[in-house]
Structure formats: structure tokens, C-alpha cells
Amino acid sequence: ALIMTFVLYGINRIFIKRQYALAWQQQEARARASGLLQESFSNIHLVKSAGRESSAGKRVLGEYSNLYDLNLSAIKLGAMRNGLMRLIPTLCKGMLLAGGAWYVVQGELSLGELLALQGYFAMLLQPASSLGFVEYGLQQGRAAADRLLTLAEQLPEENLEDGIVPETFRGKIQ
Fold first, then answer.
1. Euclidean distance between CA atoms 99 and 103, whole angstroms
2. What SS3 class is residue 174?
């Protein structure tokens, strides 16, 4: 049972790395798509006056198509991970039951001892599995926090090149 917790932890670590990268990409794509949609609607008069409705529509649909593909990838990744995280303990419980049944038939183990062993096994694996599901879900929050920290670390626009704050204008501007 202890070996199984380490196996579940290892599987979880593999999928968490992929989930983090995918969550980052999803959030970036969502931001791009929302920004492009807002830009298109806020400048609708300019878009229509230039006859660029189809071009703007294609750009927006392209971004949302990319976001859709990323969401499907996240669903596939989650389904694979959830399937493995549920399949492996179930297989182990089945092997424990089959092996225990063999020992019960041989008379080396009572039925009550087998049931107690199954109960202990379930009590040990359930918290490890639950922690894995929680950690997997936290990856989206971690990706969002990292994106926000990246923005917070950037210098304001006036300080990008040389770090000098521009002076205020004096006099008339023509």
C-alpha cells in the first residue's frame, strides 16, 4: 500500500507539469481572445467604415478556435490522469482481494482479516488520492499567480529603456 502511494504521487507529478503548462497557455489564449473581442467591439465603427468585418471576425474566431483546442487538450489530459489515478488503486484492490482469497482458501487467512486488510488499504490510499486531485486542481491557480507576478515585475512603460522618468511638459504644446 505504501508503494502504491508513491506510484500515485509519481503519476500525479508527471501530469501536474503538463497541467501547469497547459493552464498557462489556456489563460494566455483566453486573455488574447477576450482582448481581441473587446478591441473589435469597441472599435466597431472603424471596423465597419473600413469594411473589415470579415477580417476582424476571422481573427476573433481564430483566437477562440485556438482556445477551444487548448480546452480540449486540458480535458483529454485530465481524463487520462483521472483514469490512471482511479484505475491503478482499483487494480491493486483487485489483486489484494484475489491474493487474499487465495490465502483464505488455503486457510492461512480468515475472511475477517481479509476484509480488515482491504479496509486498511482503502484508508491509506484515499487521502493520497484526494491530495493528488487537489494538487492537480491547484495548478490553474499557480499558473494564474505566476502570470500576475510576471506582470507585477515589469517596469512601468516610462522606465522600460533607461529607467528615467520623463519630465512633465513646460509651456505650450503645439
1. 6
2. coil
CA distance 53 to 73: 30
Residue 116 cell numbers, joined: 480488515
Closest to 139 measured CA to CA, from 15, 11, 7, 5? 15
For residue 81, count other CB atoms closer than 10 A to its CB.
20
Per-residue pLDDT at 68 exceeds 70: yes
3-state DSSP helix/strand/coil % of the chain, to nearest 5? 85, 0, 15
Contact by Cβ (8 Å): 128, 5: yes
Residue 43, sorted as left (phi over 0), alpha (psi -120 to 50) or beta, turns out to be alpha
For 92-142, the pLDDT digits (tens) are 889 989 999 999 999 998 989 999 988 888 888 888 778 877 887 788 888
What radius of gyration do the chain's Cα atoms show? Answer: 28
Taking the CB of residue 67, how many other CB atoms lie within 10 A of it?
Answer: 20
Contact between 136 and 80 (Cβ < 8 Å): no
- For residue 7, the model assigns a pLDDT of 82
